[in-house]
Write a structure and sequence with these properties.
Layout: E1 9-12, H1 18-29, E2 33-38, H2 41-55, E3 60-64, H3 70-84, E4 89-92, H4 107-135, E5 138-143, H5 156-176, E6 181-188, H6 194-207, H7 211-220, H8 230-240, E7 252-255
Parallel strand pairs: 1-2, 1-4, 2-3, 4-5, 5-6, 6-7
Length: about 260
């Protein structure tokens, strides 16, 4: 299938590692112009070099951006507009919020999670929409979590703000479908990333068991029997964010190997 990405500019936020990096790599393989961002300039530079080497696509560029900073987001989009004319495809991604239950968290934790994990997506979407409206084309993917379908104990911040992201996605999809701007949410289940490894370590410490035991328990709940790989998640993002997707919008999908029991 031709995903029609060779003339498209794709921005993937928080993409120096993990799901963001895997997604940027898949877009680069398809010949898109790929823009990546994260807070660490040195890691970003390494990621750009790695993607170029793996794909032989030299149209890969980077700019630092802290997704919790409105100033950084404004600077990122000023750069995207000045250098590339705007982004045709936006992959919204951030690191996960602080783990914990209700009694573990203060107002500052809630405000930080809101700004990083929901308001950042609102800000980036606001910034990218004028170009998409002008060209009558756009694809926005909001990377979320399986907590949008089934809450995860000990991750109340994710349960709260990721669900808000689904409402945002559905509203945007309905409002901008007339402009050929399709918006979807895609959440990972147990994908082998640093974030999941961190959560496994936290769970192991709380339960006084080994990380290996936590992984085995988790894998036993996944019908496919293993954690997913970042590239498996990224390939789904790739299709839904491409011009080849012409009719799917406003959806909330989970890539989890069949783990969730919720309908």
């Amino acid at each position: 299938m031709d995903l029609q990405l060779k003339d498209k500019v794709v921005l993937v936020t928080a993409s120096s590692k993990g799901l963001g990096k895997a997604t940027a790599l898949e877009f680069a393989k398809e010949g898109a112009t790929v823009l990546i961002s994260s807070r660490n300039e040195a890691t970003l530079a390494q990621t750009v070099d790695e993607i170029k080497q793996l794909t032989n696509n030299q149209q890969v560029y980077a700019k630092t951006c802290d997704m919790s900073s409105v100033e950084d987001i404004n600077a990122l989009f000023a750069w995207v507009t000045a250098e590339f004319g705007g982004a045709d495809i936006l992959i919204n991604n951030t690191g996960g919020p602080t783990a914990g239950g209700f009694k573990d968290l203060e107002d500052s934790d809630w405000m930080a999670a809101f700004e990083k994990n929901l308001l950042s997506y609102i800000r980036t979407t606001r910034a990218v929409l004028p170009h998409m409206e002008a060209t009558n084309f756009g694809r926005i993917i909001n990377i979320s979590s399986s907590s949008t379908k089934e809450v995860i104990d000990g991750l109340i911040l994710s349960n709260t703000f990721r669900s808000g992201m689904v409402g945002l996605t559905k509203s945007l999809a309905r409002e901008y479908a007339k402009n050929n701007i399709l918006v979807n949410t895609i959440g990972p289940g147990r994908i082998a990333t640093d974030r999941v490894a961190e959560l496994d370590q936290i769970a192991a410490a709380k339960q006084s068991v080994s990380v290996e035991d936590i992984v085995k328990r988790s894998e036993s709940l996944i019908p496919i029997g293993r954690y997913g790989q970042p590239e498996e998640f990224a390939k789904v993002v790739l299709f839904l964010a491409s011009p080849a997707n012409t009719y799917m919008t406003g959806q909330s999908l989970i890539i989890d190997g069949g783990m969730l029991k919720a309908l």
